[in-house]
C-alpha cells in the first residue's frame, strides 16, 4: 500500500515540476532569442537505509530545443540576429563569459554596448565593447564589425571601433544557466571566436517556443497529476478497508 502511495506522491510532485517548466516556456514565447527547455520523466531507484525497494518518478531537463526561431525585420541599426548556427558572446552578472541569441542591442550613458537584458556585449578580444560618444550613426556588419560616425564628422569618416565576438560551439557542449544564458559545460572554459559566423542587421530572432505544443503538454501533465491524486485517494481507501478487516478479525 505504501509503495503505491509513495509512487503516486512522487509522480504528482514531478508533474508539478514539469508544468512549471512548460509554464516558463510559455512565459517566454515572445522573448528574443529564447530557447525552449525540454522535459522528460523517468523512474529512479530510491537508495537509503535498508534495501532499495522503492522507485520514484523524476522529472528532469535533459536539454533545450536549439532550433532557430522566426526572424523579425525591425530596420533598427542596433538589432542583429545570428544567421544559422552561432552565438553572441556577453558578460553575465558574475563577470563570466556567456552566450545568447538575443541581439536587441543598446548603448548606455557611458558608451558601453549591451543587450536588452543589460548584459555587456563582448568584443573579439574578450572585453566589453565601448562606443565613443557622441555619435551620429552606428553600423554593424555581417561579420560583427562595429563602425561609428562621430558626431559632426563627414559621412565618409566612419570608424571601426570593435567587433562582436561570435562563436559556434557544439550545442552538446553547452548548458543553460539559471539566468537564461548559455555557458560551456566545462567550468571556466570560453569558446574561441569563429569568423564563419555571420549576422543579419536590422532583424531579431524570436523565441522558438511552440505555444500550442506547450499548452498541450501542460494539459497532459495536469490530467496526469489528477490521475496521481486519484491513485493516492484509492490507496487511502484501500488502507482504510484493510484496517476495517483487521478490526473485524
TrEMBL record:
Keywords: Bacterial flagellum, Cell projection, Cilium, Flagellum. Residues 82-148 form the Flagellar hook protein FlgE/F/G-like D1 domain. InterPro entries: Flagellar_FlgE/F/G (IPR020013), Flg_bb/hook_C_dom (IPR010930), FlgE/F/G-like (IPR037925), FlgF (IPR012836), LlgE_F_G-like_D1 (IPR053967). It holds the Pfam family Flg_bbr_C. Coiled coil: none annotated. The lineage of its organism: Bacteria, Pseudomonadati, Pseudomonadota, Gammaproteobacteria, Vibrionales. Residues 201-245 form the Flagellar basal-body/hook protein C-terminal domain. NCBIfam families: FlgEFG_subfam, flgF, PRK12640.1. This is Flagellar basal-body rod protein FlgF. GO terms for biological process: bacterial-type flagellum-dependent swarming motility. It comes from the Bacteria. The basal body constitutes a major portion of the flagellar organelle and consists of five rings (E,L,P,S, and M) mounted on a central rod. The rod consists of about 26 subunits of FlgG in the distal portion, and FlgB, FlgC and FlgF are thought to build up the proximal portion of the rod with about 6 subunits each. Belongs to the flagella basal body rod proteins family. One of its GO terms (cellular component) is bacterial-type flagellum basal body, rod.
